Amino acid sequence: MDITVFSSEEFDTKAWVNEIMKNPEHQNDSNYTMSLVTKLQLYVQQLNTTLEETSQQVLSSLPKIMRDTSSLQQEAVTLKQKMATVKSEIERIEYDTGKSIDTIEKLDSLMNRLNMAKQGLHESDNWTVLVNDLEEVFDTKNIETISSKIVSMQNSLKLLVNISDYEDRKLQLEGLKNRLEAIASPSVVQAFNTNNLEQSQLYVKIFASIGRMPQLIKYYHKCQKDVLLKKWRDQLELEQDYSTIEWIHNYYSTLLSNWHQQSRWCSQVFPSDVSSAKTLLDVYVDVLTSLDPSLKECCDAALKQVPDKLNFLIEVKESAKHFADSLLKIIEQSQGDGHSARSEEGLSTFDRGLWIRRPPDRT
Q: What's one Pfam family here (predicted)?
């Protein structure tokens, strides 16, 4: 007999009895019925015995469970106390460590100040020695040696920034740089005028080392300006029989030729942070507004002689536009379109160099 059906939640007593007794042979068999009842009683007795044994085991295990629970609670309390102790110890260590770090920082700061004071005394002595040496070296007019001494003084001054007479020493250093520049300027001008690549590179290195690159660019600017102004005067003298339009056109050609030569030369001489295009544009703007006689004066004189004044002005305008467009194209090819906006801004100044109002474009 299968007793597992009794554990089913859907067990139906009547259905189970009917299923057992559906065999006709068993319906009138009292012995079979008694046998089933006896088996059921035995199963019930076994189940009761099993339940009793299980209950006894549970009851006997309860004290151990209670003891284990109590032990776990005690261990939890002990662990909590230990964690509190550890936390307190950590806080104490952090406090002591913080005080130690503060002490170490103060000692480190004191040591740094002592080192700076020691270095300051050393550099102060070194400064005095360099000043005395420079006075002797200046007499030799050896530009490289003088610049080397000034660079050493420059480095020494960086370490004397906190001394009381720092500003006085700074002014003294600037005065020495001015003296060096005065000695070097004739040679610088000669190197720029003759396009001496090796000498020019040397002066760029010297002026860059003493922080005087802007002044060196000004020397180059003036040299180029003087050269181009002289070419204008020479051209007017040689081309007296030429028309004003031819003067202007030929001079623009001279400027374009000069650009090709000087842009390559500048890129070889000056460092990468110096824009050759900007440097030359500044020169050309200055030249076009300093011509003697000016383009305006030449055009005014020509307007009094030419019969077709409008056509003359249009030719002047087209010549200037052709020059500006050609120069802008050269710059864009050498530097890329990223510089075109700045280049156009510089080239627009050429119109102001003409000093005349340009007629509208012909359509």
A: COG7
Segments in 165-212 forming alpha helices (H): 166-193, 197-209
Whole-Å CA distances, 297 to 150, 239, 360: 49, 17, 21
Q: How many CB atoms lie under 10 A from the CB of residue 17?
A: 11
At 210 the three-state DSSP class reads coil
- The per-residue DSSP string of 179-191 comes to HHHHHHHHHHHHH
* Helix (H) or strand (E) run with residue 224 in it: helix 213-238
Q: Which two tokens stand for residue 5?
A: 């059906």
pLDDT, tens only, 26-71: 666 677 778 877 887 887 888 788 888 888 777 777 777 777 787 7
Tell me the whole-structure pTM to 2 decimals.
Answer: 0.63
Tokens of 317: 């305008």
Residue entry with tokens 């010297």: 206
Stretch (H or E) spanning 357:
none
Structure tokens at 246: 């031819």
Residues of the chain below pLDDT 70 = 1-3, 5-7, 23-29, 113-125, 335-363
CB burial of residue 318 (10 Å; 0-12, 13-18, 19+) = middle
pLDDT tens for 99-124 read 778 778 877 777 776 666 556 555 56
